Amino acid sequence: MPLYLGLDSSTQSITAIVIDSDSREIVYEHGINFDAAFPEYGTSNGTLPGDDPQVVHAPPMIWVEALDELMAHLADAVDVARIVAVSGSGQQHGSIYLNSPIGPLNPDESLKAQIEPLLSRATSPIWMDSSTNAQCNDIRDALGGTSATTAATGSNTFERFTGPQIRKFAETEPAAYASTVTIALVSSFMSSILAGTTSPIDPGDGAGMNLMDIAARDWHPGALDATAENLAAKLPPIAASGTEIGTINPYFVGKHGFSADCRCIVWSGDNPCSLIGLGLVQPGMLAVSLGTSDTLFGSMAECATDPNAEGHVFGSPNGDYMTLICFKNGSLAREAVKDSFGLDWAGFSEALQSTTPGSGGLMLPWFEPEIVPHVLTPGVHRQNLDESDAAANCRAVVEAQMMSMRIHSEWMGIKPACIYVTGGASANADILQIMANVHGCPVHRFETTNSAALGAALMALQGQSGCAWTDAVTGFAEPVAGSEVVPQDEFVGVYHERVEAYRAFEASVLQA
Prior knowledge:
Layout: E1 3-9, E2 13-20, E3 25-33, H1 34-37, E4 57-58, H2 60-77, E5 83-90, E6 95-98, H3 111-115, E7 124-125, H4 133-142, H5 146-153, H6 162-172, H7 174-179, E8 182-185, H8 186-195, H9 203-206, E9 212-213, E10 218-219, H10 221-227, E11 244-247, H11 250-256, E12 263-265, E13 268-269, H12 270-277, E14 285-290, E15 294-300, E16 312-315, E17 321-327, H13 331-340, H14 345-353, E18 362-366, E19 379-383, H15 390-407, E20 418-422, H16 429-439, E21 443-445, H17 451-465, H18 469-473, H19 489-511
Parallel strand pairs: 1-5, 5-12, 5-13, 14-20, 20-21
Antiparallel strand pairs: 1-2, 2-3, 4-7, 6-8, 9-10, 11-12, 14-15, 15-17, 16-17, 18-19
Helix pairs in contact: 4-6, 4-10, 12-17, 13-15, 14-15, 15-16, 15-19, 16-19
């Protein structure tokens, strides 16, 4: 019975999941926290302390040492010789700079001793870094502005994206940039170590760089030229998800007991891997994470980009495209309304049950600056809504969030077939009913932990076996049995009209 290994190198930890493709079971799951396991690096939540809060770096060698320790733990728990393929997920946007390519490694020497001399930069800027505003502006201007940049690369320029980070490195440390022969993402860096050769970058992670032509799935010459000199020569090629890089590095055969025939499959970013780990492998499938911020993931067969530059578009590991739209005022706003009326969550649900869908006023719940739509100045706006009416305000905040998701995902050009919901608020059936009614499709509750690592294991399975994606995820990425919430026909039409009223209200406030 073959086993498949998925790894997730995230901001604070590295996690492994091993799946048995015959029994459709997860047979091993374990993670290592960077801070706890390697205090000598001085990290806090996986990042290095610094004087400038906008600059956030991490030590890439902590990821290397954690990988080695995780493999040792795995070898003690699982017959790793049965693992036929491995793939992985890396925190998106982080970049690593090498003065020599990674090759086959000696199992008689430490992994750290062999990798550390290859670094041309000791630290890696990661997704939390926001110090590249000037570089974002320069790249955006060179590409013709916000709309042109989004249409070309899938996203507007963002400070955390890798392209602006590379430009800043080239400007501030030109000698170190010149000595760099390969620039890797976290995903391609870790997969290069596993495969013993320079790993390509897949379209899911490459799209998080402001460097990839989102439609062509190849490096965008104009974006490369706008970012740094001779950049094309320093980047590995882009290869489709599922591409086999080669067999596993001899280091892991000699040190940890892997089979020399174990296949290494190209890695992706954590967001595309999570899409697979949630089973979203068919167009029209959406997932919504109801957390502090609410995040919408979607699957699209055709490439579409957001003309308002609010959403991100990445390649999906199944060969399609995915979108990611983040709404900052998620549970943050729901809790603010709940707390303002002295309610607990049971009372919040009772308030929703006591009100009629679409009958009250409207709310724009921007308790904090909002990402989508882009609102810098926080404020709660009400239309025909009594500020003292607890039940009406509870319904209004949830309706607003669901209608905003619907409006700001319309550019995808798809009608959702179903929505998988995760996060703390997914346990609230009344919130899910409003979601189903607003979107006009069934909603399923999805309980998941380590969805990125699971998605990586499924990528290894599909890449090595060549099976259909629907077959790969069956039995692994399933919603909670009996959790389906179906739309109520009598209210779906009500929300069609209410969405238009909300759209007009939002537009009037934004214009003002």
